[in-house]
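Work through this:
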Amino acid sequence: MIENPNILIIDDERSIAELVAETLEVAGMLTQVCVHASEALPMVREGSFDLIILDVMMPGLDGFELCARMRAESFVPIIFFVSQGRGSR
């Protein structure tokens, strides 16, 4: 296991991304939050991440397209994050 893994959390809802980050930090992990899909690729290029947590439903560039673009440049493991509110059905 990697000691203090560095995790990038990409979610357009800052409150959700920060909640995930806080939870992971309590467990000893390092986190960075990105709330704009357009800013994620440069962060992946410049950063040294052990894992990416990626929201699927984002405005503009969705999580699937962003994943495909990241995969062209990086093989960092990606976990898709999907949240559905009460009114989203």
